[in-house]
Amino acid sequence: MYRRSKGIAILMAIFGGWAGAHRFYLGETGAGIFYVMIMMFGFSIANFPVSVVLSMIDVVRMLTMSPRDFDRKYNRHLQNQQRQYEGRRRDRRRKADPRQEQILRERQRRAASSSKSRVNPYKSTGLKKYKDFEIEEAIDDFVKGLEIEPKDISLHFNLACAYSMTEEADKSLFHLSQAIKYGFKDFEKIRTHDDLAFLRIQPEYEKFDENGFKLDSVKIEPNKGLLDDDVLLSQLNKLAELRKKGLLSDEEFAIEKKKLMRR
To answer: Mean per-residue pLDDT for 66-78?
Structure first.
């Protein structure tokens, strides 16, 4: 496929525009035929052929058009051809070097993971429910959010606050320690935030504070399974919702529940 030239199109419009020559050259066959018909029927304005007037308008339009806009309008076929060529060249490189395929898959995986973490629907819905004092529902959404991004600092901190408000000190302390582990540094907020008031009056918190906001070795062991318990509860709730909607029978629900409990 050849590249249409802006200069040639302008010259054809000047010297053969009355017959639509430039339109045929640019691949606009219908417009070219229209010019020919106007010329054949002798349409004119003040004894000046209409086709000539239209071709002069086309000349001005093309003169004011940037080369990039001209190519975008009249050489689009070459752009598509170039993209196809580059795609075939990438395929040949991947076949020649299997590592290229692995690199491409890893990039796609990272891009998907990054996109997934940026768009975490449970994080926003959980915050909304939390602000509306729907604490139990907010906890459920925060836990689902952690299934998508287990190291999200704000999700762990908000879970610590929510569990403090429901007076579940162990879970609150666990998620607070997780938030700190993954980079939370605002210790003054921990000492003053209203939603952590219940946690702060617990003996475990005093040791936690004195230890530089780190769980000691004794405290870590009992809390190892807390996050797993939260995830299990979320999965069980999902199964219950599917059964309620009629997507799972009672027998299927029992089987899936047994599978989860065996993990």
So the answer is: 83
One-letter amino acid for residue 230 of the chain: D
Beta partners for 95? none
The whole-angstrom separation of Cα 70 and Cα 66 is 6
Tell me, yes or no, whether 125 and 219 share the same domain. Answer: yes
Residue 112 within a domain? yes
pLDDT of residue 155: 92
**pLDDT higher than 70, residue 169:** yes
Find all residues with CB under 8 Å of 123, minimum gap 6, and list them.
141, 142, 145, 152, 154, 155
Supply φ then ψ for residue 144, to 5 degrees: -65, -35
Q: Answer for the pair 4, 75: CB distance below 8 angstroms, yes or no.
A: yes
DSSP sequence for 128-147:
HHHHTT-HHHHHHHHHHHHH
Cα(41)–Cα(46) distance, integer angstroms: 15
pLDDT at 219 over 60: no
Domain range spanning residue 30?
6-74
